[in-house]
Amino acid sequence: MALMVLEGSGDSKRRDQRVGARGASSLKVTDAFWYALLAFLVTGSTWGYTSDDIWYLIGTALGVILGAVSILSKKYSGRELGLSCGMIVLSIIVALSSHSLTLLLTSVLVVSSKEMRLDAILRAFLVVKAASLISLIVFGRLGLVDVEAVSHYSALAGGTIVRQSVNGVATNILHLGLFTLFVLLAALKQERLGFVSYLAMMAVNIVFYRCVSYSSAGILVTGCAILLAMGVRYSGVVASALCRFGCFVVPLTVAFFLYTGYQFDGTGWIAELNHLMTGRIAYNHYWLTAIGPTLFGVNPAGAPAAFDNSVVYLTVGLGVFAAMAVLAGYFLAMRRLGRSRDVYLLLAVFMFYAFSMSESVLPSAVVNPSLFIVVAAISPGFYKSLEETTRMQTVETQPLAVPNN
Fold first, then answer.
1. Which of 162, 240, 275, 330 is deepest in the core (most CB within 10 A)?
2. 8 Å CB contact between 362 and 368
3. Is 82 exposed, middle or buried (0-12, 13-18, 19+ CB in 10 A)?
4. How does pLDDT run across 23-37, given as a tens digit for each residue?
């Protein structure tokens, strides 16, 4: 689970790189294709393309091919093969029922990432997300993509505010890009990030809000992520509390959003809370009462409300089987990461889960890289750590022992 990089001498590094290359060559093309597909999909998602666009459909088709090739060419244990096939079968059924490719694309990305390095996946996601987010902002400033002003009432702001939509990307999703960069930096750099770095992140968060996104939820959740990362970095109490109690955010949020969604009637404290949450509880109420939980999802086309919460989106939009799989996976992953004291990986999983309570992004590996951490936590042998790869290569290169005369 660790993301540390083992250092060695230059000679041993070169020797380790040479030896074992023959055994790894069969995976190189597959892994390179995987990274290219990830870059293709993350860039498209950041630029505002959705499952209705040909971009997304092409990526899904390529992902299905890659998933099939990976299952045939990579080594899976019996348990891993069973889980992988189960994920793909469920996601196909959900896609047919809901007309949503989100779960299918997540499944093939996860299954085909077998035997890769978790730290390499997260770094690739970070680089692609940074490049695509910066390019989107530059394109908007240059007038190459549409930048539209959208009036929106915010109870937190105390009135109507004007937000920007860049190339059709909603403001919260736009700020999610910055949130992703900061959370992945914290997970990858860990103790190497200091107080000045976190202050710089907070300043960028404020500037991004005032100049680009105008997203109240975005600046709030990103600010909380930075503060929690600082707390984990400098306070053993905060780190211990996150490790002990972080996993319970899953059952608490599930109970909260289902209860308030069903009980909402436009009056009382739930109505006040709905006001503060800019109508999200009212949206939940519509989906839970007009449609209700489904087995394998529902096509939301033409509905008068949007999915703005991942718990309800999973339960209604993708079905209770998908909801149980994803939510149980997050609970189990956070519990295991807490017990093993992988606090920075736990921080990433916890914060992405928290952000997903205001957007329906939890089951999408294209926008939510914490899904790869969840897989690593609940199936420890699925990914190779850099230490494991180096150790395997070193063992292969040991010279034959020469007996003493």
1. 330
2. yes
3. exposed
4. 344 447 888 889 999
